[in-house]
Design brief:
Helix content: 40-55%
Order of helices and strands: EEEHEHEHEHHEHHHHHH
Number of strands: 7
Distance between the termini: 58 Å
Strand order of the largest sheet: 3-7-4-5-6
Oligomer: single chain
CATH topology of the largest domain: Beta Polymerase, domain 2
Number of helices: 11
Radius of gyration: 24 Å
Strand content: 5-15%
Largest sheet: 5 strands, mixed
CATH class of the largest domain: Alpha Beta
Shape: elongated
CATH architecture of the largest domain: 2-Layer Sandwich
């Protein structure tokens, strides 16, 4: 517990403590009082370039940060995803929590959070010791943190490096979609993944708006909206999406192989 003792004095110094009017006469100049920290106020730290949120969203994030810091004790908390970019079009609130060796149950934290705020959350727990490395070598993690609001000041490292083994692990699902048929959203997510990886390898910006714009340019808006919303699509559209996935996989493999020469 953080606490200190201080004598009450009159003055205009910045560090002075204000006594409520109801306690005038009970506490006077010269009296010694004890001040203790009951709960630390949640502060919001914006990533560079992120547009300021509405007062409602800021107040909600402060409440979420305070609740998680008291109940789950993470090293740091980040809000990412569509909640930051869209006014009303988000389905849930994406949170990334950094933990040290001890971390609580992800399911339990999610349940308590949803019960407290009556909202849907998507949680991702990351080992704080591996976080810096992920930001440098994982295209998907780096894209996720292109814009964020955090509980502590955090900087995204500018330097990156290519871990070919990790990249090829990320390519497994797109490769599977060339052989198996899943819901249309899987094709959208795989294209988004491939565009992100390719742009990372080419050292291009990987902000969400840039990635969405590139995917939109690959097909008509009717198909784009259908796969984004996981609606049923005909076999002809599946064939087109597989063709797009195959082309991106070829481009990425070429970039990886060129780097190994």
């Amino acid at each position: 517990m953080v606490a200190f003792r201080k004598a009450v004095s009159r003055g205009t110094r910045f560090s002075q403590i204000y006594i409520p009017k109801s306690m005038h006469g009970l506490i006077e100049p010269g009296d010694e009082v004890e001040v203790r920290l009951v709960r630390k106020g949640a502060r919001l730290h914006y990533s560079k370039g992120l547009q300021k949120l509405s007062e409602f969203k800021e107040e909600l994030i402060r409440g979420v940060f305070s609740f998680l810091e008291e109940s789950a004790h993470p090293v740091s908390i980040f809000v990412v995803g569509s909640f930051l970019r869209e006014k009303t079009g988000y389905n849930d609130i994406d949170l990334v929590l950094l933990f040290g060796e001890k971390k609580p149950s992800e399911e339990l934290v999610n349940a308590r959070l949803s019960e407290k705020f009556n909202l849907k959350f998507h949680l991702l727990f990351i080992d704080s010791g591996h976080f810096g490395r992920l930001l440098k070598m994982c295209p998907l993690t780096r894209a996720m943190f292109a814009g964020f609001v955090s509980s502590h000041k955090s900087d995204i490292p500018r330097e990156t490096y290519v871990d070919r083994k990790h990249i090829r692990f990320l390519l497994m699902m797109p490769y599977d979609l060339l052989e198996i048929r899943l819901g249309s959203r899987a094709y959208f997510d795989s294209l988004r993944r491939l565009v992100t990886i390719e742009r990372f390898l080419k050292k291009k910006p990987i902000e969400a708006s840039e990635i969405s714009r590139e995917i939109e340019g690959l097909m008509n808006m009717h198909l784009y909206n259908k796969i984004m919303n996981n609606e049923e699509i005909e076999q002809g559209s599946v064939n087109l999406l597989r063709k797009l996935i195959r082309e991106r996989l070829g481009s990425i493999e070429e970039l990886l192989n060129h780097g190994e020469e």
